[in-house]
Write a structure and sequence with these properties.
It is a single chain. By secondary structure, this protein is α/β, with parallel strands linked by helices. The protein contains 17 helices and 13 strands. Helix 12 links the parallel strand 11 and strand 12. The protein starts with 19 loop residues before the first strand and ends with a helix. The structure holds 2-carboxyarabinitol-1,5-diphosphate and magnesium ion. The site of 2-carboxyarabinitol-1,5-diphosphate has 18 residues, from helix 14.
């Protein structure tokens, strides 16, 4: 009745449609056999443990064991999990299984969860985005990439200063102003006061420019507080909230998504802390997996990197963006069927300035938000001019005019390029 780690490897197994599939990169610890190590991963992430002769094991339970069904020379491993191992609608439980204890096992030197495919029953158990790209497009009614800014300095401005900077950038042509990931309810900048003041300014900016303007306040906090903050934003005419989804965790994210089901609040997801587990190429969890989970849980917008900005993360961003925008079936080796789950608008942010914009659009396409904090508020003539320069860079691309040429007749863009160049 025993179940050794090796018993969790069955290369003849044909995965079923109903199985959850994972792709791992596995490096066994020195002296460990690959089969033993990958078996350990399948065992610990499903039903097994270190002792193969459990007195409590019986035939029916053995069938619930995950199966390594594909094992490559390059240490890529595919594992199939019976769907009964997972509680529908429970991200935390799914992660505790397929991305839980296994990262710390002694048999393993390095282990990276590269990809995941959810079967239909699990997929259907999640809400997915309420608005998605389509809903967001309706809100703005423009075909170009949206331009956003993060108020900088990240922390320190009081609520009036914050609102004034937001107003200036809206006047300059910014569509979306967002709080930074660590700006919540501070002693020097109270959440409620900031919301009141900034939304008031938003209304004025909309009147003055005739354009749709959005403020994305960061409601990140313990769950009950987060709900109160979301409600406060909605009652004052806000249309978006931002959540730090990694530091809040899947449980809080799912709960707030459910709470907002009947409301008109778009969810912007910041991914602060993701790099603690996504950055190493050998260990941890890929950003692609995090993005898929965020989509299932129901964020409408997600930071996915820039390829060319200040943050680490290259070409993978292109794959992730494609997966988030996919309306039907994704294109991994075990493609995710997204039917019934809306799309997510990717957000390019981190070290960007107007000089990045043509290359960014070339790499990532038009269905993105281009956000710049330092690249707006660091403009030699201030935030309003910085906002103009960023918007001008997008307008130039949409008109198919080379940035340096466009800058000849657009002073703000010219100065931005003088300072930061064109990438
Ligand atoms: C951008 C940003 C974002 C990063 C995070 C910042 O500001 O607000 O938090 O984009 O990275 O504080 O760095 P700047 P990512 O425009 O001033 O760089 O989007 O990759 O998760
Ligand atoms: Mg930030």
């Amino acid at each position: 009745m025993g179940m050794r780690y090796e018993d969790f490897v069955d290369l003849s197994y044909e995965p079923k449609e109903s199985d959850l599939i994972t792709e791992f990169y596995v490096e066994p610890q020195r002296g460990e056999k690959l089969k033993h190590s990958v078996g350990a991963v399948a065992a610990e992430s499903s039903i097994g443990t270190w002792d193969p002769t459990l007195s409590t094991m019986r035939e029916g339970i053995k069938d619930l064991g995950a199966k390594v069904f594909d094992l490559n020379e390059d240490s890529l491993v595919h594992i199939a999990y019976p769907e009964e191992l997972f509680e529908p609608g429970n991200i935390s439980q799914i992660l505790s299984s397929v991305a839980g204890n296994i990262f710390g096992m002694k048999e393993i030197k390095n282990l990276r969860l590269l990809d995941i495919k959810f079967p239909e029953t699990l997929k259907k158990s999640f809400l997915g985005p309420k608005f998605g790209i389509e809903g967001i497009k309706k809100l703005f009614n423009v075909e170009r990439p949206l331009v956003g800014t993060i108020i900088k300095p990240k922390l320190g401005l009081n609520h009036e200063e914050h609102a004034k900077v937001a107003y200036d950038t809206w006047l300059g042509g910014i569509d979306i102003v967002k709080d930074d990931e660590n700006l919540t309810n501070m002693s020097f900048n109270k959440f409620n006061e900031r919301i009141d003041e900034t939304l008031k300014r938003r209304d004025r900016a909309e009147e003055k420019t005739g354009e749709k303007k959005i403020y994305m306040p960061n409601i990140t906090a313990p769950l009950e507080e987060m709900k109160d903050r979301a409600r406060y934003v909605e009652e004052r005419g806000g249309e978006y909230v931002m959540i730090d989804i990694v530091t809040c965790g899947g449980s809080a994210l799912q709960e707030i998504r459910k709470y907002l089901e009947g409301e008109n609040l778009v969810i912007h997801a910041h991914r602060a802390m993701h790099a603690a587990f996504t950055r190493s190429k050998k260990h941890g969890i890929s950003m692609l997996v995090l993005a898929k989970i965020a989509r299932l849980a129901g964020v409408d917008q997600l930071h996915t990197g820039t390829v060319i900005g200040k943050m680490e993360g290259g070409e993978e961003t292109i794959t992730i963006n494609r997966e988030l925008r996919e309306e039907r079936v994704g294109d991994g080796r075990y493609p995710q069927d997204w039917k019934g789950i809306k799309t997510v608008l990717p957000v390019a942010s981190g070290g960007l300035h107007p000089g990045h914009v043509p290359r960014l659009i070339e790499i990532l396409g038009k269905d993105i938000i281009i956000q710049a904090g330092g690249g707006v508020h660091g403009h030699p003539d201030g935030s309003l001019a910085g906002a103009r320069a960023l918007r001008e860079s997008v307008d130039a691309c949409m008109e198919g005019i080379e940035l340096k040429k466009y800058a000849k007749t657009h002073e703000e863009l010219k100065k931005a390029i003088e300072k930061w160049g064109v990438v």
